[in-house]
Design brief:
single chain, alpha+beta, Transcriptional Co-activator pc4, Chain A, about 30% helix
Length: about 180
């Protein structure tokens, strides 16, 4: 995250503010707690593509129907909605495989109440209208599975050692593709 000029600031109400930088990064900050959510251009585009699904789960929770929604928006960032807390939670998660737990939530991220979620949706439309270049950004696209596997946005918990061990071919095997067992 390099220093860049802010080209658009939108007040989301309360302590929340959305800033769009000239390099198409979007940062949402909570001015009271100093917490933030950081979107690269492709991550922001992925998030926009999920807004309808997120909103559907918000409506389910608001109607009293239980739901568990959690999706990656790129990198180590996830969006979640559940009936435990009436919020849309955008948070960075970390891998803690050494103790057998796959993902753990840290304090990095912001939970939006449903009224603030509605303000964020309106702000996303405003960003698209005021900065046309933001609509030209696309989520990560890769030519091969290997490219996707080593992309930090698409596969943030990539472990090259583990992957290479899984891809190793056993050359000492007594059978081959041409051999037939009787």
């Amino acid at each position: 995250m390099a220093l860049s000029k802010i080209v658009l600031t939108i007040d989301l109400g309360g302590p929340h503010r959305l800033d769009v930088h000239e390099n198409n990064e979007v940062i949402i900050t909570d001015r009271c707690s100093k917490k933030c959510v950081f979107f690269t251009g492709p991550r922001w585009k992925c998030f926009l593509g999920m807004m309808a699904d997120i909103d559907e789960h918000v409506q389910l929770v608001s109607a009293g129907v239980g739901t568990q929604y959690m999706q990656s928006i790129g990198g180590t960032w996830f969006v979640s909605v559940n009936n435990t807390f009436p919020t849309v939670d955008i948070r960075r998660w970390y891998s803690k495989t050494s103790i057998g737990v796959s993902l753990k939530p840290p304090a990095v991220g912001i939970a939006f109440t449903y009224p603030n979620w509605n303000k964020l949706k309106k702000a996303a439309i405003q960003v698209e209208n005021e900065i046309p270049a933001m609509s030209a950004i696309s989520p990560c696209l890769h030519d091969s599975h290997i490219e996707q596997m080593i992309c930090d946005e698409c596969t943030p918990y990539y472990n090259p050692q583990e992957t290479s061990e899984n891809l190793m071919i056993d050359t000492n095997s007594s059978t081959s593709d041409n051999a037939v067992e009787h």
